[in-house]
Specification:
299 residues, Nucleoside Triphosphate Pyrophosphohydrolase, binds zinc ion, 6-stranded mixed β-sheet, 2 domains
Length: 299
Protein backbone atom coordinates (compact mmCIF):
# COMPACT_ATOMS: atom_id res chain seq x y z
CA UNK A 1 0.00 0.00 0.00
CA UNK A 2 1.32 3.45 -0.83
CA UNK A 3 2.39 5.34 2.29
CA UNK A 4 0.05 8.14 1.32
CA UNK A 5 -2.94 5.82 1.73
CA UNK A 6 -1.83 4.25 5.02
CA UNK A 7 -2.60 6.75 7.84
CA UNK A 8 -0.86 4.77 10.61
CA UNK A 9 2.37 4.32 8.65
CA UNK A 10 2.21 7.93 7.51
CA UNK A 11 1.90 9.14 11.11
CA UNK A 12 4.90 7.01 12.13
CA UNK A 13 6.89 8.46 9.23
CA UNK A 14 5.90 11.98 10.24
CA UNK A 15 7.34 11.41 13.72
CA UNK A 16 10.48 9.57 12.57
CA UNK A 17 13.66 11.43 13.45
CA UNK A 18 15.12 11.03 9.96
CA UNK A 19 12.10 12.68 8.38
CA UNK A 20 12.62 16.19 7.04
CA UNK A 21 10.29 19.12 6.42
CA UNK A 22 10.13 21.76 3.73
CA UNK A 23 8.69 24.74 5.57
CA UNK A 24 6.57 27.24 3.65
CA UNK A 25 5.78 30.61 5.21
CA UNK A 26 3.76 33.26 3.38
CA UNK A 27 4.54 31.56 0.05
CA UNK A 28 8.26 31.57 0.80
CA UNK A 29 10.66 28.67 1.20
CA UNK A 30 13.95 28.37 3.04
CA UNK A 31 17.07 28.42 0.88
CA UNK A 32 20.42 28.06 2.61
CA UNK A 33 23.54 30.14 2.04
CA UNK A 34 24.77 27.28 -0.17
CA UNK A 35 21.73 27.82 -2.43
CA UNK A 36 20.27 24.45 -1.45
CA UNK A 37 16.78 24.03 0.02
CA UNK A 38 16.78 23.86 3.82
CA UNK A 39 15.28 20.56 5.01
CA UNK A 40 14.34 20.85 8.68
CA UNK A 41 14.09 18.09 11.27
CA UNK A 42 10.77 18.12 13.12
CA UNK A 43 12.34 19.54 16.27
CA UNK A 44 13.42 22.64 14.35
CA UNK A 45 9.85 23.52 13.41
CA UNK A 46 8.89 24.81 16.84
CA UNK A 47 5.40 24.49 18.29
CA UNK A 48 2.95 26.48 16.24
CA UNK A 49 2.26 24.06 13.42
CA UNK A 50 -0.38 21.39 12.90
CA UNK A 51 0.65 17.77 12.33
CA UNK A 52 -2.47 16.99 10.40
CA UNK A 53 -1.72 19.63 7.78
CA UNK A 54 1.72 18.17 6.92
CA UNK A 55 1.72 17.07 3.29
CA UNK A 56 3.67 13.97 2.37
CA UNK A 57 5.92 14.81 -0.60
CA UNK A 58 7.69 11.45 -0.92
CA UNK A 59 11.18 10.20 -0.41
CA UNK A 60 14.51 11.80 -1.26
CA UNK A 61 17.32 9.25 -0.87
CA UNK A 62 16.80 7.82 2.65
CA UNK A 63 14.65 10.63 3.96
CA UNK A 64 10.91 11.03 3.82
CA UNK A 65 9.89 14.59 3.10
CA UNK A 66 6.83 16.56 4.18
CA UNK A 67 5.78 20.06 3.29
CA UNK A 68 4.42 22.10 6.18
CA UNK A 69 2.90 25.55 6.40
CA UNK A 70 4.48 27.72 9.07
CA UNK A 71 1.89 29.91 10.80
CA UNK A 72 1.62 33.53 9.75
CA UNK A 73 3.61 34.75 12.75
CA UNK A 74 6.42 32.16 12.56
CA UNK A 75 5.95 29.59 15.37
CA UNK A 76 7.77 29.85 18.69
CA UNK A 77 11.10 28.08 18.56
CA UNK A 78 10.77 27.50 14.82
CA UNK A 79 12.50 29.09 11.87
CA UNK A 80 12.72 32.85 11.86
CA UNK A 81 10.89 34.82 9.18
CA UNK A 82 14.18 36.23 7.95
CA UNK A 83 15.27 32.73 6.93
CA UNK A 84 12.60 32.53 4.24
CA UNK A 85 13.56 33.75 0.81
CA UNK A 86 11.46 35.55 -1.70
CA UNK A 87 10.32 34.02 -4.94
CA UNK A 88 13.12 35.28 -7.10
CA UNK A 89 15.79 33.16 -5.48
CA UNK A 90 13.71 30.03 -5.76
CA UNK A 91 14.19 30.01 -9.51
CA UNK A 92 17.31 32.04 -9.84
CA UNK A 93 19.64 30.23 -7.48
CA UNK A 94 18.60 26.64 -7.00
CA UNK A 95 19.31 23.72 -9.31
CA UNK A 96 16.47 22.40 -11.45
CA UNK A 97 15.86 19.50 -9.05
CA UNK A 98 15.97 21.69 -5.97
CA UNK A 99 13.75 24.24 -7.65
CA UNK A 100 11.28 21.50 -8.52
CA UNK A 101 11.24 20.27 -4.92
CA UNK A 102 10.51 23.73 -3.53
CA UNK A 103 7.94 24.40 -6.23
CA UNK A 104 6.25 21.12 -5.33
CA UNK A 105 6.20 21.90 -1.59
CA UNK A 106 5.07 25.47 -2.08
CA UNK A 107 2.43 24.49 -4.63
CA UNK A 108 0.96 21.84 -2.33
CA UNK A 109 0.90 24.09 0.73
CA UNK A 110 -0.69 26.95 -1.17
CA UNK A 111 -3.29 24.64 -2.67
CA UNK A 112 -4.13 23.32 0.82
CA UNK A 113 -4.40 26.82 2.26
CA UNK A 114 -6.86 27.78 -0.48
CA UNK A 115 -9.00 24.72 0.17
CA UNK A 116 -9.52 24.73 3.92
CA UNK A 117 -13.27 25.03 3.29
CA UNK A 118 -15.52 23.20 0.88
CA UNK A 119 -16.28 25.17 -2.27
CA UNK A 120 -19.71 23.54 -2.56
CA UNK A 121 -21.22 23.72 0.95
CA UNK A 122 -18.76 25.84 2.92
CA UNK A 123 -18.03 23.23 5.63
CA UNK A 124 -14.48 22.68 6.82
CA UNK A 125 -12.30 20.41 4.65
CA UNK A 126 -10.00 17.79 6.16
CA UNK A 127 -6.80 16.53 4.54
CA UNK A 128 -6.64 12.89 3.42
CA UNK A 129 -4.18 10.73 1.49
CA UNK A 130 -1.12 12.44 2.91
CA UNK A 131 -2.57 15.86 2.18
CA UNK A 132 -3.24 15.18 -1.51
CA UNK A 133 -7.00 15.32 -1.11
CA UNK A 134 -9.09 17.79 0.86
CA UNK A 135 -12.35 16.13 1.86
CA UNK A 136 -15.47 18.00 2.98
CA UNK A 137 -16.30 17.23 6.62
CA UNK A 138 -20.03 17.53 5.92
CA UNK A 139 -21.03 13.89 5.37
CA UNK A 140 -24.03 14.89 3.27
CA UNK A 141 -21.64 16.64 0.87
CA UNK A 142 -18.36 14.70 1.01
CA UNK A 143 -16.86 16.70 -1.86
CA UNK A 144 -13.25 15.78 -2.59
CA UNK A 145 -10.85 18.39 -3.86
CA UNK A 146 -7.56 17.59 -5.65
CA UNK A 147 -4.46 19.68 -6.36
CA UNK A 148 -4.57 21.46 -9.67
CA UNK A 149 -2.26 23.35 -11.94
CA UNK A 150 -3.21 26.23 -14.19
CA UNK A 151 -1.87 25.89 -17.74
CA UNK A 152 -0.21 28.94 -19.18
CA UNK A 153 1.52 29.41 -22.50
CA UNK A 154 4.85 31.07 -23.07
CA UNK A 155 6.02 31.68 -26.61
CA UNK A 156 8.92 33.02 -28.63
CA UNK A 157 7.55 34.43 -31.89
CA UNK A 158 10.06 34.66 -34.71
CA UNK A 159 10.11 36.36 -38.10
CA UNK A 160 13.04 35.15 -40.24
CA UNK A 161 16.15 36.25 -38.30
CA UNK A 162 14.34 38.28 -35.61
CA UNK A 163 12.44 37.41 -32.48
CA UNK A 164 9.65 39.23 -30.67
CA UNK A 165 10.27 40.30 -27.07
CA UNK A 166 8.25 42.48 -24.74
CA UNK A 167 8.69 44.39 -21.51
CA UNK A 168 6.04 44.60 -18.81
CA UNK A 169 5.63 48.01 -17.22
CA UNK A 170 6.73 46.79 -13.78
CA UNK A 171 10.02 45.44 -15.12
CA UNK A 172 13.08 47.66 -15.12
CA UNK A 173 14.07 49.45 -18.32
CA UNK A 174 15.85 47.14 -20.72
CA UNK A 175 14.45 43.90 -19.27
CA UNK A 176 12.63 41.91 -21.96
CA UNK A 177 11.12 38.46 -22.26
CA UNK A 178 8.85 36.23 -24.30
CA UNK A 179 5.05 36.54 -24.49
CA UNK A 180 3.08 34.59 -21.85
CA UNK A 181 -0.43 34.20 -20.52
CA UNK A 182 -2.95 31.82 -19.02
CA UNK A 183 -4.98 29.40 -21.09
CA UNK A 184 -8.71 30.16 -20.96
CA UNK A 185 -11.50 27.57 -20.68
CA UNK A 186 -12.32 26.04 -24.05
CA UNK A 187 -8.99 26.93 -25.64
CA UNK A 188 -6.27 24.66 -26.98
CA UNK A 189 -2.68 25.61 -26.12
CA UNK A 190 -2.25 26.71 -29.74
CA UNK A 191 -5.37 28.89 -29.51
CA UNK A 192 -3.99 30.48 -26.36
CA UNK A 193 -0.67 31.22 -28.08
CA UNK A 194 -2.44 32.94 -30.97
CA UNK A 195 -4.78 34.92 -28.70
CA UNK A 196 -2.11 36.08 -26.23
CA UNK A 197 0.29 37.16 -28.96
CA UNK A 198 -2.50 39.03 -30.76
CA UNK A 199 -3.78 40.67 -27.55
CA UNK A 200 -0.36 41.80 -26.42
CA UNK A 201 1.28 42.75 -29.73
CA UNK A 202 -1.30 42.47 -32.54
CA UNK A 203 1.04 40.01 -34.32
CA UNK A 204 -0.62 37.10 -36.14
CA UNK A 205 1.14 33.77 -35.79
CA UNK A 206 0.99 30.67 -37.98
CA UNK A 207 2.78 27.44 -37.10
CA UNK A 208 3.06 26.80 -33.35
CA UNK A 209 5.60 24.21 -32.13
CA UNK A 210 5.94 22.81 -28.63
CA UNK A 211 9.42 23.02 -27.08
CA UNK A 212 9.08 22.13 -23.41
CA UNK A 213 7.44 23.04 -20.14
CA UNK A 214 8.24 24.30 -16.64
CA UNK A 215 6.18 24.29 -13.48
CA UNK A 216 5.82 27.88 -12.33
CA UNK A 217 4.95 27.91 -8.65
CA UNK A 218 3.43 31.39 -8.45
CA UNK A 219 1.22 29.85 -7.28
CA UNK A 220 0.38 26.77 -9.37
CA UNK A 221 0.98 27.47 -13.03
CA UNK A 222 2.42 25.15 -15.66
CA UNK A 223 4.24 27.11 -18.31
CA UNK A 224 4.03 25.33 -21.65
CA UNK A 225 6.63 26.68 -24.05
CA UNK A 226 6.34 27.17 -27.81
CA UNK A 227 8.01 28.68 -30.81
CA UNK A 228 5.63 30.35 -33.22
CA UNK A 229 6.14 31.78 -36.70
CA UNK A 230 4.93 35.33 -37.29
CA UNK A 231 2.55 35.99 -40.17
CA UNK A 232 2.52 39.76 -39.64
CA UNK A 233 5.14 42.13 -38.26
CA UNK A 234 3.49 45.42 -37.26
CA UNK A 235 3.34 45.70 -33.47
CA UNK A 236 0.48 47.30 -31.58
CA UNK A 237 0.17 46.92 -27.80
CA UNK A 238 -3.54 46.12 -27.80
CA UNK A 239 -4.16 45.25 -24.14
CA UNK A 240 -1.43 47.37 -22.54
CA UNK A 241 -0.05 44.31 -20.74
CA UNK A 242 3.31 45.20 -22.25
CA UNK A 243 4.90 48.63 -21.92
CA UNK A 244 6.96 48.03 -25.04
CA UNK A 245 7.69 45.27 -27.54
CA UNK A 246 10.02 44.91 -30.47
CA UNK A 247 11.77 42.68 -32.95
CA UNK A 248 15.38 41.80 -32.12
CA UNK A 249 18.02 40.12 -34.27
CA UNK A 250 20.67 37.81 -32.86
CA UNK A 251 23.25 40.52 -33.51
CA UNK A 252 21.24 42.99 -31.44
CA UNK A 253 20.84 40.53 -28.57
CA UNK A 254 24.52 39.57 -28.68
CA UNK A 255 25.40 43.26 -28.50
CA UNK A 256 23.44 43.54 -25.24
CA UNK A 257 20.38 45.39 -26.58
CA UNK A 258 18.22 43.95 -23.80
CA UNK A 259 18.49 42.10 -20.51
CA UNK A 260 17.05 38.59 -20.83
CA UNK A 261 15.19 36.38 -18.30
CA UNK A 262 17.09 34.12 -15.85
CA UNK A 263 19.10 31.28 -17.43
CA UNK A 264 17.05 28.52 -15.81
CA UNK A 265 13.67 29.94 -16.83
CA UNK A 266 11.77 28.45 -19.72
CA UNK A 267 11.65 31.93 -21.27
CA UNK A 268 15.43 31.91 -21.55
CA UNK A 269 15.43 28.39 -22.96
CA UNK A 270 12.93 29.36 -25.65
CA UNK A 271 15.12 32.29 -26.69
CA UNK A 272 18.25 30.15 -26.50
CA UNK A 273 16.82 27.36 -28.69
CA UNK A 274 16.21 29.92 -31.45
CA UNK A 275 19.31 32.07 -30.84
CA UNK A 276 21.80 29.21 -30.95
CA UNK A 277 20.82 28.30 -34.52
CA UNK A 278 23.69 30.34 -35.95
CA UNK A 279 27.48 30.26 -36.09
CA UNK A 280 27.95 33.04 -33.53
CA UNK A 281 28.33 32.84 -29.76
CA UNK A 282 26.02 30.65 -27.65
CA UNK A 283 23.40 32.68 -25.81
CA UNK A 284 24.19 31.19 -22.40
CA UNK A 285 27.82 32.35 -22.72
CA UNK A 286 26.92 35.98 -23.28
CA UNK A 287 25.83 36.78 -19.72
CA UNK A 288 22.68 38.60 -20.78
CA UNK A 289 20.22 37.02 -18.37
CA UNK A 290 18.89 38.71 -15.28
CA UNK A 291 19.11 37.22 -11.83
CA UNK A 292 15.55 37.82 -10.74
CA UNK A 293 12.41 36.25 -12.03
CA UNK A 294 9.31 37.56 -13.73
CA UNK A 295 7.28 36.63 -10.69
CA UNK A 296 9.54 38.20 -8.14
CA UNK A 297 8.28 41.40 -9.65
CA UNK A 298 4.65 40.47 -10.05
CA UNK A 299 3.74 39.01 -6.66
ZN1 LIG B 1 -19.01 20.25 1.21
Amino acid sequence: MALRNDPAALQATLLHEQTRFVAVWQSRCMIGDDDNPVLLPRAALGDGWRNELAIYLGRLAEQHLFAIAVDAAAPAGGPDASQFDNHGRLLALTSADDGALLAYAKGMVEWQQRHLYCGLCGAENRPADGGFVMVCSNAACGHRCFPRVDPAIIVLVTDADRCLLGRQARWPAGRFSTIAGFVEPGESMEDAVRREVAEETNIKVGAVNYLGSQPWPFPGAMMVGFHAAAESVAINLNDQELAEAGWFTREQLAAGAVQLPPVNSIAFRLIEAWFDQWDGARLAELGLSSSFSRSAQSD
